[in-house]
Amino acid sequence: MLKIINLHAKVGDKEILKGIDLEVKAGEVHAIMGPNGSGKSTLAQVLAGREIYEVTEGQVLYEGRDLLEMKPEERAAEGVFLAFQYPVEIPGVSNPYFLRSALNSIRKHRGLPEIDAFDFSALAREKMKLLDMDEELMKRSVNAGFSGGEKKRNEILQLAILEPKLAILDETDSGLDIDALKAVARGVNALRSPERAFIVVTHYQRLLNYIVPDFVHVMANGKIVRSGDKSLALELEQRGYSEMDDLAVSELVR
Amino acid sequence: MSSTTDIAALTNQEYKYGFYTDIEVDSVPPGLNEDVIRLISAKKGEPEFLLEWRLKAYRHWLTMSEPRWANVHYPPIDYQKIVYYSSPKSAKNRPKSLDEVDPKLIETYEKLGIPLREQQMLAGVAVDAVFDSVSVATTFRDKLKELGIIFCSFSEAVQEHPDLVEKYLGSVVPYTDNFFAALNSAVFSDGSFCYVPKGVRCPMELSTYFRINAKDTGQFERTLIIADEGSYVSYLEGCTAPIRDSNQLHAAVVELVALDNAQIKYSTVQNWYPGDKEGRGGIYNFVTKRGKCLGVNSKISWTQLETGSAITWKYPSCLLMGENSVGEFYSVAVTNNRQQADTGTKMIHIGKNTRSTIVSKGISAGHGQNTYRGMVKILKSAEGARNFSQCDSLLIGDQCGAHTFPYLEVRNSTAQVEHEATTSKIGEDQIFYCKQRGLSAEDAVSMIVNGFCKEVFRELPMEFAVEAQKLLGISLEGSVG
Known about the structure:
The complex is a heterodimer of chains A (254) and B (481).
Chain A lengths: L1 E10 L2 E11 L4 E5 L6 H9 L5 E9 L2 E2 L5 H6 L2 E4 L6 E5 H15 L7 H14 L10 E2 L5 H15 L3 E5 L7 H14 L5 E5 L13 E6 L2 E6 L2 H23 L1
Chain B lengths: L2 H7 L15 E3 L6 H10 L4 H15 L23 E3 L14 H9 L13 E7 L2 E5 L2 H6 L3 E4 H7 L1 H7 L10 H9 L4 E5 L8 E7 L10 E6 L4 E9 L6 E4 L2 E6 L4 E8 L11 E12 L5 E8 L4 E4 L2 E4 L5 E10 L4 E10 L5 E10 L4 E10 L7 E11 L4 E10 L5 E11 L1 H9 L4 H17 L4 H15 L5
Parallel strand pairs in B: 3-7, 6-8, 7-9, 8-11, 9-12, 10-13, 11-13, 12-14, 13-15, 13-16, 14-17, 15-18, 16-18, 17-19, 18-20, 19-21, 20-22, 21-23
Antiparallel strand pairs in B: 1-2, 3-4, 5-6
């Protein structure tokens, strides 16, 4: 589904991604771990098409197409979804209106008829139940005045409603208490399917107790320095990232 | 295309109404003196009282100086270079019916999307069209007449209802009020007049459409609306002008009078030529609008969408005199490119238990400068008065400015006054967030802007709310692209 080949990207003069290679197949869940500043979030943003990052080298193929050639809204319409680390507030725009507009824009792209307000409301209610979300949130503006946990749940609600093919979760676990974490994980697990892939970016192993990955990759200094199965995450938890940095350096030297 | 250039770019669409109609005109030479005023008055065959009033206004104007307190900047205006009267020649002998109106004028209005021919009109909207200085056609007049409603050009009102004009002209905005109101009082050439008799609910929207066509012409129209006891009227004005590289002055006066239990709803969609991107040309819109809630339980509501003009200087206000009277002000003001707006309202609470609501939304894009200036004054007599004000500013890009100057003056301790203000910015992160959810930059901006304005738009009559949303889209096109 997704093939990243030798991806380099910079912001301003600063090179952040220094040659990423990664292949994600449909149905798989990949966790990307690493210390702060290792480039995890940059990778997530580059895949979503954030313009402040400039790709200087490499290639990204999504379902055989050049992802980097596509505009952000096109990527979204083609099924790439990013759950933001810091979901953005849009005061004045109601949450259901925003979500329904997004859904209809994507449905239109896929040649499906628009969904009306009644059907949408039923759909939203069903998905909110899954995430144990307060229905009050549907009466408010997009993320405006939401707590950190509410914002993250709102991201997963959007994920559940938009049903993308490739979902990238950028530190969705940060700032969540254990109940919220479980609710988010429940939402994500309910969406796992043979047709859908996940890239879960996280700093901590904790989330991976609830969303069990098929593969774990460790990033350091703009590169993937180790890949393995879920046991790698546990190892990392015990040894910490600092040792990993040393490891990364020694691997680079070798 | 990046979101950053998105934000740098939503206003590039050219002004759509910038064409000029080549039509023969009857105008007076540029410049202002008592002879010009006598000439205007004579051309219009006015009664003596009106000429006297004009001359008094002119003499008073000579003693005044242009206000400089507003947060707007422009070179000095040479009042001797302005043409104070211009009228399409064919209107010299007023047309008796639409069939006699110059086809070129009808064509102009049709181009503007204001069909004057009644059979083509939106059901339920009567239109008075003002071209340069004179009113060229009023539709649906007979139907309104059956209900006793007078809706005609100001000139006709002077001829046919001089008693009403004499009684109410200047009763809300006296000619001594301010520099531009004094100038208007001296030279106003036409405008709209409306009287709704006791207990009558006007069944259709009344609408005036203003068009400045001739070069170097000032438009000084005067609108007077009187709602007698227990009556109701909803009124809308729209405005456009051709593209010119010199600035044109528009100094109008609007007076509203609401008697006991009467209601006036006054809506404006102002789309005068705003000037080009570098700030060349455009209309100076220096307007005095005021309503007087004279009777008990009366209500005056101002709703405005200001997207045009190089400079807007305008404070539609309410004098709340009658007990339990209500004043409302809902405003969306947009400044893009080099536009400047200093706009707001005054709510003067005089009677007991008077209430007022102010909702002001300022949108700045490009190099636009947007100022809200509002006064809430509660006099000693206004026992139990209440006011709620909300002023929100939205910035698009980082070259524009938003300013808020609220003035509160409370002289009665039983009064309740609330003021809320917010400033927000459409950021690159919001646009990217929307795009990541599959929405285009244009859809994202229009969603955010419409969300920001919705409290005001829902106050507009329905047909015009749709129009307003479209106009807002056009005004901001290119500020994100």
